[in-house]
Design goal:
Blueprint: H1 10-27, E1 36-40, H2 46-54, E2 59-62, H3 65-74, E3 81-84, E4 102-106, H4 109-117, E5 126-131, H5 148-156, E6 161-167, H6 176-196, E7 204-206, H7 213-218, E8 223-226, H8 228-231
Parallel strand pairs: 1-2, 1-8, 2-3, 3-4, 4-5, 5-6, 6-7
Bound molecules: pyridoxal-5'-phosphate.
């Protein structure tokens, strides 16, 4: 039987994606290096992870704790940075400390409080992004653009969390105006936090997925989270 590698086109796709990111960054007056590419390997077998690492990707992500733990067992420690981008159960959250490099989906004060309460002096601090429901869809979790100022203020007081910025998921649509609007809302939230919370230093804007990352970069994204654009359709 002929050997088939479903990821054999990864380096070609990666070249394409990097060029698109660079062009979009230039259109927004920024350097391509200001946008970090995060490869979302969810739904793919471990082969995708190894191909991604061999292709030189340095930031990988999963959206479920169980899947992330599987990856952590399979990949040498320090080989790449790991990102958690999916919704967390409150009871699962403490197990991520010291094991993920960035939690993108800090989506409620209750989750933040749980993390703070279960932290012990000297334990690793968790870098986080505050997830904002920029589009106001009922199906999405996250702070509302109105609540996030108060929430960020509380999170800044917590010793166990280090907020590095904000994350959002745009609506599932091809409507460019709708997509851009939700990215602009997130950027606007960052501006408000910077203006109103003196100790806020979070510069990161995690926004943009396979179908909308060029728009997100044009609107100021510093982290794009790409799955299918790199690995094709998910297999599970
Ligand atoms: C799955 C997922 C992605 C990647 O989605 P694609 O459309 O395949 O690029 C990005 N962010 C989050 C939070 C995800 O769950």
């Amino acid at each position: 039987m002929a050997e088939t590698n479903p990821y054999k086109n990864l380096s070609r796709k990666l070249t394409y994606v990097r060029e698109e990111i660079a062009r979009a960054a230039e259109r927004s007056g920024r350097e391509p290096g200001e946008v970090r590419l995060i490869a979302v390997t969810k739904g793919h077998p471990i082969q995708a992870v190894h191909e991604a690492l061999d292709a030189g990707l340095t930031d990988l992500a999963e959206n479920r704790v169980e899947a992330l733990e599987e990856r952590l067992r399979e990949v040498e420690v320090g080989r790449c940075r790991w990102h958690m981008v999916g919704r967390l159960q409150r009871r699962q959250a403490p197990s991520l400390r010291g094991r993920v490099d960035l939690l993108h989906s800090l989506d409620s004060l209750r989750l933040a409080e749980r993390l703070e309460r279960t932290w012990e002096e000297g334990a690793p601090i968790l870098p986080v992004l505050i997830q904002v429901n920029a589009s106001g869809e009922d199906s999405k979790t996250g702070f509302t653009p109105e609540d996030v100022l108060d929430g960020a203020g509380r999170i800044l007081e917590m010793k166990s969390l280090q907020p590095l910025g904000l994350m959002t998921m745009a609506p599932f649509t091809e409507d460019e105006a709708v997509l851009r609007e939700s990215f602009r809302v997130l950027r606007g939230v960052r501006e408000r936090l910077e203006a109103e919370l003196p100790s806020w230093e979070g510069r990161e804007l995690s926004m943009g997925m396979s179908n909308d990352f060029t728009l997100a970069v044009e609107e100021g994204s510093t982290m794009v989270r790409l799955g299918s654009a790199l690995f094709g359709e998910r297999t599970r």
